Predict the 3D structure of the following.
Amino acid sequence: MPDILDAARRALLGRPERSERLHAALLPKRVALPVFASDALSSVAYAPDEIFLTLALAGVTAVTISPWVGLAVVVVLLTVVASYRQNVRAYPSGGGDYEVVTTNLGPRAGVAAGAALLVDYVLTVAVSASAGAHYFGASIPWLHGRETWFAVGIIVVITLVNLRGIRESGRGFALATYAFMLGAGLVAVVGAVRHLTGTLGQAESAAFEIVPQAGLDQGLVGLAGGLLVLRAFASGCAALTGVEAISNGVPNFREPKARNAATTLGLLGAIGASLLASIILLAGATGVRYVEDPATQLRLDGAPPPADYRQVPVLGQLARTVFDGAPWLAVAVTVVTGLILVLAANTAFNGFPVLGSVLARDGYLPRQLHTRGDRLVFSNGILTLGAAAVGLVLAFDASVTRLIQLYIVGVFVSFTLSQLGMVRHWTRELRTEPVARERARMARARVVNAIGLGMTGTVLVVVLVTKFAHGAWITLLAMLAVGGVMVWVQRYYARVNRLLAIDDDPAESRALPSRVHAIVLVSRLHKPTLRAVAYARASRPSVLEAVTVGLDDDEVRELLERWEALDLPVPLKVLDSPYRELARPFVGYVRSIRRAGPRDVVVVYVPEYAVRRWWERLLHNQSTLRIKMQLAFVPGVIVAAVPYQRD
Amino acid sequence: MPDILDAARRALLGRPERSERLHAALLPKRVALPVFASDALSSVAYAPDEIFLTLALAGVTAVTISPWVGLAVVVVLLTVVASYRQNVRAYPSGGGDYEVVTTNLGPRAGVAAGAALLVDYVLTVAVSASAGAHYFGASIPWLHGRETWFAVGIIVVITLVNLRGIRESGRGFALATYAFMLGAGLVAVVGAVRHLTGTLGQAESAAFEIVPQAGLDQGLVGLAGGLLVLRAFASGCAALTGVEAISNGVPNFREPKARNAATTLGLLGAIGASLLASIILLAGATGVRYVEDPATQLRLDGAPPPADYRQVPVLGQLARTVFDGAPWLAVAVTVVTGLILVLAANTAFNGFPVLGSVLARDGYLPRQLHTRGDRLVFSNGILTLGAAAVGLVLAFDASVTRLIQLYIVGVFVSFTLSQLGMVRHWTRELRTEPVARERARMARARVVNAIGLGMTGTVLVVVLVTKFAHGAWITLLAMLAVGGVMVWVQRYYARVNRLLAIDDDPAESRALPSRVHAIVLVSRLHKPTLRAVAYARASRPSVLEAVTVGLDDDEVRELLERWEALDLPVPLKVLDSPYRELARPFVGYVRSIRRAGPRDVVVVYVPEYAVRRWWERLLHNQSTLRIKMQLAFVPGVIVAAVPYQRD
């Protein structure tokens, strides 16, 4: 079996790489920017949509305040980027938020941050793949209505690409991210120029009226209106998602890691903020309409849009309007946007396994997550992430709007915890730092992080208030569940490690058993049995006997006769089995031998046919499997499998 | 883990029984009749429906020939019963059709018969449970529309009951079968008396007109009409299903097994034929209408039946008409009919595991099917049957009409093969029998079987012609697949057995390895490792060393230091792992030792933590699992698991 699996893995994942190549997999800035920034940058492809869509619930006039909401989001974005530049410098080891929080706020808060981050990574993949599928759907009619399965396909492909290793993915993805920056940048610049020269037209959807939701038909007035603005702001904060990805990925940067990461983060903040601002302003200028459900919310001369009307994402609508003379350019922008969204999911695939490995190292997750696979990556973590994201996409039918409600809360939980941790970090550092210049730098950094804390904390409260019923509760529940599992795994490992730790008195644990009682389990008389007998004899035990369980009188008689005929110097004992069981009488016999000589070791030699394919398992060794499982619970018994290989 | 599973099994299935109780599980005739006859008898609850439903495709007048179709079915039924009485007498060992065919027509035909029977058993369960669910649905409004899940539930319950053992089921089911005979008998007798006295009314459905199918609106004329009559006859032959059940169940009868079984079979034939005839005649007399799709095929004054119209099975309609003064009696008849159908599925649960065990004994099926479970039953076979039947019910949405198309063809394949085998049997016996009286008896038996052969062969052709496109092809495909697997399994076992057979020269296979090279696999230094070292030392190997795979330099250094500190008389060797793998370097090292000393045995001691629950597996022993799997393919290596039990 392993050979086939191995061949399949090689074909899918490529050849294994040596540890020494680990450093070669480190990323220069020009590759790191697209790899780690694609998440944060790509969110400008869906964050404006969420702002427009939420405000649209109160009608067309409400949408006009979108620039103010956008401005608030940009301020938060720049603040958070500034804060995270401090994080990256202070903690360059890649534990990211988890490390910051654990070190400064203690392991309990660390578990909370770890759980939030794990959940976030899954949501990043789900949201990005879903949004990407919808952007592609806007350009490729065949995809319309098949977005869910397309999103699932995207995740599967990214999972495979990442199992192949980080370098290839970094290289392959850089081009696409730069293409997106170019495309979105062109839309922004050309749009601005055309707007200023008065040649910018109206979006196709500008002709639609928007039907306000019941209770909001008076526009943004009263408590309901205020809450809606807050909700739009909270939704827009989806633009911040992905900023933390770099702080978890610092070890993947080239030296000087921290500085390179901070520079990349700054670049990313500047680019992201400009793109976000341009898109929102241009969308306002061109009268773009974007709603949750076009059929019920849009009206053209009082009638709903035609049945074949397909709502295009905001950036796509802008591209069509700005490049109305060159439709191929608009299609190109939509496609590269779809592409960068797809690749944004890849950011999580860089961060999740690293975090999983760190958590596994600290004992919060199963140990196998700590092991690097043979492609220099943490294969198990990658597989877990892919599977969870596919599950989410299927559960939420690839709806970006619904997934975003879940996404933001997790992001801001870790933002807030991380900033709180950083404030504590600087406070502690300041306590011991004697150099005045350093102290001043630290104090400045603390102010930045404190502002970040205030900002992210406020947003978290806003998000919780406005989003709780819309899905945030699911994220909180998931974080609670993940955190619970982490605590439980950690306690479990701690308990087992205590149990298995070597006592102070090593003599006890080194006491040798007095004798070895060897038993060969015989079910039939064939070559594997003879080999097991020969090997058992070679180990020269104090007592050696062959034991069979009598299920059928005729078979037992024949077996005994043939055993006699072979003239082996090993007696064959037949155990009675009144219930026609194999395992119970045999295990009972082994127990009785242990009772007779508690200081003896019993070695049970089990002849086994080495099956090569999984289905052969169904035809062989089924009864011995049960015996082996039960013998594991008899103290002082060694189960020695003697495989017989077919030539 | 085993303890929990065990407790659950005990709770569901009861305590294990001793082999000696096997004879106590044999059935007296009064219990055997209901257990084995329920299948054949219960088919009168759906066979008439299929006749009426098929004829109704050509309109109301076509239905009037139903008595003639019924008569033909009764003739075939009685012939087949007479033939099978010969089978039972000649082959009382319970191999049934499979044994008859294998002995007389050779193993290839035996495989065909075995495959047909296995498929039939599954279909018996599916058809009976589905029909039963519909009878219950006719009395219990809540079940309407939930028949599929109810049928699945029925199968699950029967599976559990049968895992508990045959005796309890036999006893519990006898009452219900007798109740059905009483109920259906009452309908027949009271109906006949009322008909003769002129007090029998018309069925509720008699008021409906039947819309003939396109092409059949001229009634039963031409080729189409002729084919429809043949199709109705083929469908009616569903009444014969289950007759063969007794011939497979002969070993479950009390002595004299063969005579008791033959008597039971005769009784069953007489009862079944009378019930079938009465139901068809009374349904004609009361003008019962029964169609495949009431909404499109029934018309009342030109309009389709009301939306809440629910078509009741023929026997149910009869009971309502015959007992029009006592509706509770009609409900009782419907319920006991549903009950006997449910219990009919049980017949297959008696026959299938026996046949599976016989086939496994002959090497056609995986060996574990040959083993009796600890409740005197063949648990694996029962589970397989239940799962397959549930699958069919779900796939065909519990539609009796669609399942019957699949059912009949399999039944008549085994009928025909079996009768052909019997004719050969008597011909061979006659060749050697000297006593004239015996010869005369055998010749008579041969005539009976030859008539049976002619009859079943003809029906098989009719079934194939009329049912092929309606689903018979699925059964043929399934039989082909099952037969293919059987042949393949048999060849596989034969090849492996040849490979593993002990050669003529026993000296070679008894050659002792010269030395034992013991290796303790060390991943961490804890109690399980020390125990493994101690046990390895106790076996006094020629060479003993501890080996660890170096994944992390710091960890290796710490491990070496602690190993030194313990002052064990065993050297610890560190293997380099450039690809951060555990398995490959270790297995490579073991191979190199084998190459250095090809006549040595290598024993690899693997310390293991004995996990008690399945989820603990996820947290332990994952890496050693892979090593063990790969070592199974290195010749001359024993893998000795040294479990460490938590107290």
Q: What stands out?
A: Residues 58 and 214 of chain A are 9 Å apart (CA to CA). The beta strands of chain A are 209-210, 298-299, 516-521, 543-550, 572-576, 601-609, 637-644. The longest strand of chain A covers residues 601-609.
